[in-house]
Amino acid sequence: MPALLIRDLAQVASPAGTGAPLRGAELRRVDVVEDAYVLCRDGRVAAVGRMAELEPLRDDEVAELDGGGLVALPGLVDCHTHACFAGDRVDEFDLRASGASYEEIHAAGGGILSTVRATRAAGEDALRAALESRRAAMRSHGTTTWEAKSGYGLDRETELAQLRAVAAVGGVATWLGAHAVPPEFADADAYLDFALAEVLPEAAGIADAADVFLERGAFDAAQARRYLSACREAGLVLRLHADQFTEAGGVELAVELGARSVDHLEATGPDGVRALGGSDVTAVLLPIAALVLDRPQPPGRALVDAGAAVALATDLNPGSAFGESLPLACALACTQTGLAPAEALAACTVNAAHVLGRADRVGRLAPGYDADVVLLDAPDWRYVAYHVSGGDVAVVVEGGEVAWRG
Ligand code: NIG
Ligand code: FE
Question: What pTM did the predictor assign?
Fold first, then answer.
């Protein structure tokens, strides 16, 4: 593979420092180089610097990319999606516009369970094709590393098909075996008996992490503890959907079990904020879901000020967040949850990479990191959050090669 020189960039911006996750004042430190270049070699970033200081290159072959008028950021990391699904929920969107709530639709057998029916019926090839096309949409918004969950199968065959599809399309797979109770089971405990005995052993061989929807109408804290404890035993990293509508002990459970992340947090109050601030659990904000469901936004500012490690993701799914754009999530994080653009950038790069256990490889534009680069057609890197209509992504480089051009 020839080396790739991205030259004459207006700016290169990257979260500063080396460790992960970033917290407190560290979240605001961005290294910005003006009139800059990025040199990629063998799929990694070899150097970042000022054009004026670019040394003659020793490579036999160098491809050049004109970065004039563009800014370079690290490829964005979407650490929470439900991108692997079939069908849509446009009819429910219409019903919600007329006043039906997400929870009412869910209780009536729609919502997540309607996507379960469509996903079970689709077959693995169609599921993979749907995921491929969503992955392409994510890339066009600047996402180069992504996670996707199962949770729309809730039977053995479809859960494993979802996880295989995510791995095949290049994502980090999370087994969301406790998303909802499917109709063929009498209750949540009976369903968990099945899922832990029949699905977990194989799911643990494909997925990196396990996730549970701890919420009124889904799984309670005792059921979540049982599910997560078994998943930890099987070697999976732990994550939770918690405090989306109600505080039901999810934050406490995440801290107790040493979970990697607790995601949503729209209903989290001061005690939960304090607990996360003093913990190693990353708080994942999903502001698109709060916007779409017209819920309060998660307490992003308070979490950062309490010392929490905060990440930001799309939650891409057909019900609460049908959107692939991390720049939109950044815009909402800044305008609705009180984060600064620098904090939003760190939250969807370094800290999101930490959630996925990949912070040593992705999330920064610095020597040694994977050569995943987003070029924005903008004069300043903060356009990633400032330009609320998005559309600034001009080129996406993955592993040192151009993967997408607008
Ligand atoms: O994170 N809240 C639970 N799960 C998803 C929504 C899934 C769906 O509505 O299909 C979420 O918002
Ligand atoms: Fe989610």
Answer: 0.98
